[in-house]
Design goal:
- There is one protein chain.
- About 30% of the residues lie in helices and about 25% in strands.
- It has about 325 residues and is α/β, with parallel strands linked by helices.
- The structure holds acetyl coenzyme *A.
Length: about 325
């Protein structure tokens, strides 16, 4: 059967790291409050020379190298971001130009923190229907550019970064590698709980992120547990078969609560929120690349990806590496 197989991963972070103590010099907060409520200890913040496209291109190059393929073989780039370089063209096309692999398909997906899950499922469908053979799926963000740096309830939570995977259509055995199942959801009625108060068609400005954190937290735990159960039900596998969960890194407490709901041991959950904070669409591929490169995630492992974000949008994918 034809499946989309993850053959390489890569990631990129801005050069500048900002600790909680440094943030406490700008807004009325403390390292203790941030660590206790979120698990975040530091985040990386892009400087004026670093853009979503530059971070994405760096992550893509690392993923191509890990997969052992040349950029010219890539026929599809799906890039998830809520912080594109420009309103248009799509940042994916800028990455395509930087990699020198023009002519194929390249577009952005906008599902905020769930963006990578939406991009992965989209690329998987396109590969399985033969629209391309090899794809780059990227999550990249510069959320620092849409934060209200005077709002302590949000500015401490986010960071910048990018992660990428190479996805290849391969003819594999039933128990072979590849994406096994994916589920996506959206519920637009919850827009006001997490949104940016600007945009080209409304205010004509970029705007700032606004969030009702407590409400988001409550919905995240319920929605994520439900979608993980749905994805498992699409396969013959159970929660006990999962080797690793690579979740969206929003908050250590959401990760713990979701793992508890599914009876998953916390040792199986890849956590990078302490180092990267919430990098929105970049967080899942960044965490995946971290765990692949430090040797935790290996070929043959069953890995669950999950995320929830603004919209609300949420989703999960199960893949054998
Ligand atoms: N430093 C110090 N105090 C703060 C800070 C801060 N950075 N931010 C808020 N406070 C204060 C508040 O003003 C409030 O004070 P008050 O009681 O005097 O009014 C108090 O801390 C408690 O505020 P809450 O908002 O109730 O704190 P809560 O325990 O809910 O934690 C948090 C807030 C961390 C945002 C939590 O609700 C959360 O993680 N929600 C999930 C949101 C999220 O992760 N969103 C990311 C995008 S969506 C996604 O990725 C799933």
């Amino acid at each position: 059967m034809i499946r989309s197989v993850i053959t390489g991963t890569g990631s990129a972070l801005p050069a500048k790291c900002v600790t909680n103590a440094e943030l406490a010099e700008r807004v009325d907060t403390s390292d203790d409050w941030i660590v206790e409520r979120t698990g975040i200890r530091q985040r990386y913040i892009a400087d004026e020379t670093e853009f979503t496209s530059t971070l994405a291109t760096k992550a893509a190059r690392a993923a191509l190298e890990a997969a052992g393929i040349d950029a010219s073989e890539i026929g599809l780039i799906v890039l998830a971001t809520a912080t594109p370089d420009h309103t248009f063209p799509a940042t994916a096309t800028q990455v395509q130009a930087a990699l020198g692999c023009g002519g194929g398909v390249a577009f952005d997906v906008q599902a905020v923190c769930s963006g990578f899950l939406y991009a992965l499922a989209t690329a998987d469908s396109m590969l399985r229907t033969g629209m391309a053979q090899k794809a780059l799926v990227i999550g990249a963000e510069t959320f620092s550019r849409i934060l209200d740096w005077e709002d302590r309830t949000t500015c401490v939570l986010f960071g910048d970064g990018a992660g990428a995977v190479v996805l290849e259509a391969q003819d594999v055995a039933e128990d072979g590698p590849g994406i096994l199942a994916s589920r996506l959801h959206a519920e637009g009625a919850h827009k006001d709980m997490l949104y940016v108060d600007g945009g080209p068609s409304t205010t004509g400005t970029v705007g700032h992120l606004r969030m009702k954190g407590r409400e988001v937290f409550r919905h995240a735990v319920v929605n994520l547990a439900d979608v993980l159960t749905e994805v498992l039900a699409d396969t013959d596998l159970g929660a006990e078969d999962i080797d690793w969960v690579v979740p969206h890194q929003a908050n250590a407490r959401i990760l713990d609560a979701t793992a508890r709901k599914l009876d998953l041991p916390t040792e199986k959950v890849v956590v990078t929120v302490d180092r990267h904070a919430n990098t929105s669409a970049a967080s899942v591929p960044l965490a995946l690349d971290t765990a692949v490169r430090d040797g935790r995630i290996k070929a043959g492992d069953l890995v669950m990806f999950e995320a929830m974000g603004g919209g609300f949008t949420w989703g999960a994918s199960l893949a054998r590496m």
